[in-house]
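Ops channel
N.P.: pipeline sanity check, posting one input/output pair.
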């Protein structure tokens, strides 16, 4: 059974950094298409970043985080990361990682409907 577990959230001041981790169990993350999303109460879950299943792990970001966030993977640890720098109060949300049902994708997956497996989420709070 596949499980995704996020960690690394917390409280940080504006301008600070956090690194979120998404660990997979039940299946190797190597080559998987993985996405990060975030959600605030009363709003829909929104796309943040994704890494696709191509050699080199091409990445794609929402405009709101481009240049500040970096998604990467460490196959030896079966983990995908989201490095978040220059955080802003508007980045405050619960962050989720996700993987598609068929695990691999050569396309950038940016919609929640593209994903099947979801973690439980980790809270990120950025104070002003």
């Amino acid at each position: 059974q596949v499980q995704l577990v996020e960690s690394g959230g917390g409280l940080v001041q504006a301008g600070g950094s956090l690194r979120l981790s998404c660990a997979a169990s039940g299946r190797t993350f190597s080559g998987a298409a993985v996405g990060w999303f975030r959600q605030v109460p009363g709003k829909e879950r929104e796309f943040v970043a994704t890494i696709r299943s191509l050699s080199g792990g091409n990445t794609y970001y929402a405009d709101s985080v481009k240049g500040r966030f970096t998604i990467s993977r460490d196959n030896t640890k079966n983990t995908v990361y989201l490095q978040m720098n220059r955080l802003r109060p508007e980045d405050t949300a619960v962050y989720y990682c996700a993987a598609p049902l068929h695990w691999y994708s050569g396309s950038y997956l940016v919609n929640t409907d593209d994903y099947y497996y979801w973690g439980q989420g980790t809270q990120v709070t950025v104070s002003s």
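N.P.: looks fine end to end. The longest strand covers residues 18-25.
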